[in-house]
Amino acid sequence: MARLALLVNGRKQAVDVDPETPLLWVLRDTMGLTGTKFGCGIALCGACTVLLDGEAVRSCQLPVREAVGHRVVTIEGLAARGDHPLQKAWVAEQVPQCGYCQSGQILSAAALLAKKKHPTDADIDAAMDGVLCRCGTYNRIRRAIHRAAKGGAT
Amino acid sequence: MSAVEVGRRGFLKAAAGTGAGLWLAVHLPGRAEAAEAARAAFEPNVWLRVDPRGEVTVYLAKSEMGQGSYTSMAVLVAEELEADWKRVRVVQADADERFGNMSTGGSTSVRRSWEPLRKAGAAAREMLISAAARRWGVDRKGCRAEQGRVVHAASGRSLGYGELALAAAREEVPKDPPLKAPGEWRLIGKKVPRLDGPDKTTGRARFGLDVRVPGQRFAAVARPPVRGGKVAHFDAARARAVPGVRAVVEVPSGVAVVADTSWAAIQGRDALGATFDPGPNGALDMAQVAKLLAEAHPEAVRREGDVEKALAGAAKRIEATYDLPFLAHATMEPMNCTAHVRGGSAEIWAPTQAPTWARSAVAKALGIAEEKVKLHVTFLGGGFGRRSSPDFPVEAALVAKAAGGPVQVVWTREDDMRHDFYRPAGRNELRAGLDAAGKLVAWHHRVRTPSISRQLFGSSSRGGHPDVAEGAATTSYAAGAMLVEAAIPEIGVPIGWWRSVYASQNAFAEECFVDEVAAAAGKDPLALRLELLPAGNRLRGALELAAGKAGWGKPLPPGRGRGIACHTSFGSHVAEVAEVSVEKGRVRVHRVVAAVDCGIAVNPDSVEHQVEGAVVYGLSAALRGEITVARGAVVQGNFDDYEPLRMGEMPAVEVHVVPSREAPGGIGEPGLPPIAPAVANALFAVTGKRVRRLPIKEV
Predict the structure, then answer these.
(1) Among A84, B47, B323, B638, whose Cα sits 20 to 30 Å from the Cα of A143?
(2) Can you name the residues that pair with B219 across neighbouring β-strands?
(3) In A, which residues are within 8 Å of B262 by CB distance?
(4) d(Cα B406, Cα B412) in Å, to the nearest integer?
(5) How far is A46 from chain B (nearest CA, A)?
(6) Average pLDDT of chain B?
């Protein structure tokens, strides 16, 4: 066990954990940030995606010690009021069904838009291909990303 | 207090003295045979409350697993109540025997509540109107309800529902409250946004795995990989040596490691180094599965005319065999459940499709009365039939009991993939005969697959035919002499309901075979289907709409082909046209056009969404889904060897709704059965080769 200082959603927080623990479980079980989801444990589904210094990373594969010194953003911290343009676009396009994968989808899309303001369909495929959805919301996700890119949520 | 009958089998009453405001309880029957019992002992399974602030709360006994019935069921109440939709909220009900069977499955939530829920809303509305008229001392005929208020037209006075709620509770419950005419609907038939949408984009929605209760620990379980196997050896000391591990406990399903975090529990479980005795199924492999399927004895489940005679006299005979694999559900949220057992009672938090079944199974496993089990239902991160089984709540209850505190049992993806109740593997053998004019005169469909009902409940019989024949015995086609047979082997693999159940197998075989018959008869596949469907069959309209929107018969770019398929299941009628090509030996699906006759589309956006979803779920299975067994154990473990469709493979999907005034049909499942055969038939159009085995993988 070790005491590690993390910066999550703009807040400094110290945690007492095994430094090899994947960030996912520290967020969920130690810090109570359950918006980040467990799906596969081996970076195949993207449900656990968070932003690390703005990059989309799979938190199930990132030992928590590697998050020290970096800015972590989870779905809870994307926008204080839950009104990030992507979140608004997600509601406008009625994307979620079961909703379980959507934190990872939204954060992956956020990383994409941060790099590319107006992504093409091919850009979206490349950025989002690692995030699985079993309910089949892919086409709506694509529409929501385009909608957010255009700056319109309604 | 006697119950007031609502609709054909629904019941309604005002519940006095249960809290402030107007409460109404509605009984939604699960099955026809339960109706009589329900009439005797009033069992509400939806509660409706209008509180003194004017807030409307609908307590729902169905699980929300993505299908959107949360919102649609609330729409039915709010529509007739004339509620202000912005002030309507839904609360998930705990498991309660008064709700009857709470299972969410068979695409039933909206279709079984269509009349009772509207009647409940209408009854509350009438009571609110009566209360207002009484207060004003006017004839109630001069009053109307509108957007959460009662208005007296002559004087222009109005009162909000909140101001009337207490008085309304003292009004008599109307026996037959009038329902609105479709032209008056404000919500039904409109694209009402999902009530759970915002919480599902902010991380606030609480799934089973997100349950956190004070003092909660986490557990992972080492389970025998073979059905009927037993734990042989494990090293508890090695597991306890993992930091954070608190206890190692044995339960009937395996060995559980209880720890401070999920990660420590999983590490501890792996450190057990558990070994297992495989038991009687330890030698099972796919060759043996195939043998068991082939050797099962067929029995007739539907017979019309003499098929053998008709085949013998046919000018042309066609036969084909179709093979289908076991499939996992692979919900995005793996199985999990949180339980706290203390003294003689238990509290369970479960992402379950069957709360009352889970509750009684937990009570039985703990040896306590059902009333002593409080079971909360969370959001479900996908269900698709997997979460109907009570295995995961029972196991969590037993782990929690042994651990002596609240525990969340966490399943890894591999646990989930390897301890599922799989869509059964099966073989479908079909034969048909054509007369000299090319008319279909004989149809023989033999279904070979294990029975879910038999494995779980001891009998395959379900509603007049074995469960395995669903979709085959109930074919919509008039095909001359007909014989449908079921050959049901016992196979040592756990099986269960998978989105659309046996229709996922039987419609594939039937719809591929109809295409083969069309080719043999020199007929267009769409034309043959329309020829075989009796006048008035609702698949006809769906077929014509899908074909029209897809441009059936119109030229396509070189290398592309179209295929069509249709099927009726769960009360809805769906046709789909797939447009495909083959790129480097791999199937590429470019476009899917679906047409759905689901009766009145309560929420057209939800209908579109469910059909889109069913198409993707069905495509994942058709193109790649396959669970295999070696030495009795499931081989696949994660999304590398059981990989669903990804964003880049997603076809354009268009969903068209056939306008209808019929009562709603189901919508969670009916979009699935036609997609695999539509793709297979499209591949024939491209390659000239028939697909007779799923998954398609390479062509």
Answers:
(1) B638
(2) B258, B409
(3) 25, 28-29, 38
(4) 19
(5) 10
(6) 92
Considering only CB atoms, B609 lies closest to which of A41, A97, A132, namely A97
pLDDT of B25: 66
What gap in Å lies between CA B398 and CA B409, rounded to an integer?
10
By CA distance, what is B191's nearest residue in A?
Answer: A94
- Within 8 A of A44 by CB-CB distance, chain B residues are 638-640, 643
Smallest Cβ distance to A138: which of B68, B201, B650?
Answer: B650
Q: Name the burial class of residue A36, with classes exposed (0-12), middle (13-18) and buried (19+) by CB atoms within 10 angstroms of its CB.
A: buried
For residue A27, what is the nearest residue in chain B, using CA coordinates? Answer: B261
Q: What are phi and psi of B349, to 5 degrees?
A: -120, 110
CA angle A15-A18-A24, nearest 5°? 70
B355, B45 in Cβ contact below 8 A? no
Q: What per-residue confidence (pLDDT) applies to B38?
A: 36
- Determine the Cα–Cα distance for residues B674 and B657; give it in Å rounded to an integer: 16
**In this structure, what token pair is assigned to residue B380?**
């479900």
CB contact under 8 A, B333 and A100: yes
Chain position carrying tokens 């199930």: A60
Interchain pair B616, A136: CB under 8 A: yes
Residue B184 structure tokens: 């008056």
pTM above 0.90, yes or no: yes
Q: What is the pLDDT of residues B208-240, one digit of tens each?
A: 999 999 999 999 999 999 999 999 999 999 999
**pLDDT tens column, A102-153:** 999 999 999 999 999 999 999 999 999 999 999 999 999 999 999 999 986 4
Q: Answer whether B210 sits within 8 Å of A34, measured CB to CB.
A: yes
Give burial (CB, 10 Å; 0-12/13-18/19+) of B523.
middle
CB-based contact B202 A75, cutoff 8 Å? yes
All residues of chain B having their beta carbon less than 8 Å from the beta carbon of residue A76 are 202-203
pLDDT digits (tens, 9 = 90+) for B650-685: 999 999 999 999 999 999 999 999 999 999 999 999
Which residue on chain A is closest to B71 by alpha carbon?
A: A97
The ipTM value here is 0.98
Residue range B577-622, pLDDT digits in tens: 999 999 999 999 999 999 999 999 999 999 999 999 999 999 999 9
Nearest to A35 among B203, B609, B615 (CB): B203
- Are B420 and B496 within 8 A, CB to CB? yes
Measured CA to CA, the distance from residue B158 to residue B82 in angstroms comes to: 14
Compute the residue count for chain B: 699
